[in-house]
Amino acid sequence: MASLIRFELHKLFRQKSFYVCLSILLALTILNVLIGNQSPNTIVLLIQIMTNQNNPTGIDLALSSVNNSYFTTVIGIFVALFVCDDYSFHTIKNVIARGFTRTQIYFAKFIACLVGALIAYCSAIIVSFGLGSAIYGVGNITGDYFLMFATQIAVCFAVTVIVFSLSITLKSKAGSIVLFVLGSTFIDLALSLADIFFQSKEIDLSLSPYWITRMLADTSTLVNGLDGKRLAICLVCAAVYSAVFLTLGWVFTRKSER
Amino acid sequence: MDYVIKTRGLYKKYGAKNAVNDVSINVARGEIYGLIGKNGAGKTSLMKLILGLTFPTSGELELFGGENLSTARKKIGSLIEDPGLYQNRSAKENLTRFALLYGEDLSKVDEILETVNLSYTGKKPVKAFSQGMKQRLGIAIALLGDPEVLILDEPINGLDPAGIKEIRDTILRLNREKGTTFIISSHLLDELAKVVTTYGIISDGALIEEISANDIAAQSGKHVRIVTDSEKSALNLIKTAYPDVITEMSGNEIKLKNHLADTADINALLVKNGIAVYEIAIAGTDFEQFFINKLGA
């Protein structure tokens, strides 16, 4: 198993698409910070409005750096390309035929994807914090921020697990990317419509807070202070999504290869 | 006998069709086992079952006398259908990746590239390789980790005559020097005849017959025809080296009814002992016709 993980990590760090995705992510992150207060549509202005500040701080920008569609899209693209490479090139038979079980392969790829996602996440945070601090100042860093970051990491891992299980089941780069991007958008819309419906019927139920997009948004700002209950819900949901999709991916992969 | 691969009643069903139909083969250590059959006969399917690339519908598979299959497969190298290669990477990068996976010493990568004559390719991506180059790289990957068994599915596909000879020489060298066991499938019967010691004849997923190369030679009338400058000395040398050899003299011509796979070694033996070999070839009844009759084509 150790050699298999080493093999997957070696591939990850030699994958051009990983560095391309990372570069795009960081470029968009930088753009967001730099032109933020010039454009009404950027996160910086949003932070200003939410925090009643004239300017956000480096730590606020770091916290909000993943609250956007391009972060999850970039993760989706990189994971799909990485996971499906072995299937599109048929190199997976060189791994299976040497005695590595499908379960070992599954978890080794999963670990490599998590490492890649963590690098992407940390890079976005660091760049946002560094650039934001240089422009606006660091801000007041409290322990609450670290709790938020920890919860964000859990949610980002859940995103990674979802796209990983889709990719390893479909074994198709294009199919996985399309299904993830369109599927996420569809789920967002469906949940929003459901919430509107419940509201119209005066039913005290809201589903959007339990989906990834809203969880990322809710863990991206401390404007109303730390909401421990909300953080706990996000952590539990992230754990449930991770467990469910990881299991489903494993089951469908084994079934498809019988 | 020490069997490295044994199957008992192996079945693989795809829908209504039995791709592998009650196959029981026995591959002894050190054998070069040739799988012969028409297209779609089930040769590749059988190899995939042995390697764990697909799962049997029923039946038993035993590797290395009953070892855990995952552990046992770490001692098996393979090349099945088209080589699995990272197309955008160089030959060296491909080998390096799999060397890391198989626990091979990375310093041996250059040596293996040299063995398959690909060290000149540098940073050229595999997608720019010819079919023969890709095949050689696939064989190089199969050789990583010094496997005890090599399973090669049509290994000489796309190779030119020089490349075919290289692969044949590599197979014979590994078998002789390291006792590596081979399972090889090929449509080129004459090429198989030069290396194989035992044949498994497969038709419609079923094993028709397992037969040694020597028995085929006896049944098919095939023999090794040797013409030298000193047939008596040559005959004595051959009988000393191969006590079970069946010989026949016809003028100055020596006919060997068995040991057809040993022509290269016999030639080397005679030359080493100062005998000029004017001719050494496999003659007699058409080898292909023998198999065609068996396969019922």
Textual characterization of the structure:
The complex is a heterodimer of chains A (258) and B (297). Chain A contains eleven helices and no strands. With 258 residues, chain A is an all-alpha fold. Chain A has one domain. With 297 residues, chain B is of the alpha/beta class. Chain B has two domains: 3-214, P-loop containing nucleotide triphosphate hydrolases (Rossmann fold, 3-Layer(aba) Sandwich), CATH 3.40.50; 221-295, YebC, transcriptional regulation domain (Alpha-Beta Plaits). Chain B contains eleven helices and 14 strands. Chain B has helices at residues 43-51, 69-73, 91-102, 109-115, 131-143, 161-178, 189-193, 213-220, 231-241, 263-272, 287-295; strands spanning 3-14, 17-23, 26-28, 32-37, 58-63, 76-79, 149-153, 181-185, 198-203, 206-212, 223-228, 247-250, 253-256, 277-283. In chain B, the strands form three sheets. Chain B has a six-stranded mixed β-sheet with strand order 6-7-8-4-9-10, with helices on both faces. In chain B, a hairpin with a 2-residue loop joins strand 12 (247-250) and strand 13. Chain B is globular and about 60 Å long. At the A-B interface, helix 1 and helix 6 of A face helix 2, strand 6 and helix 3 of B.
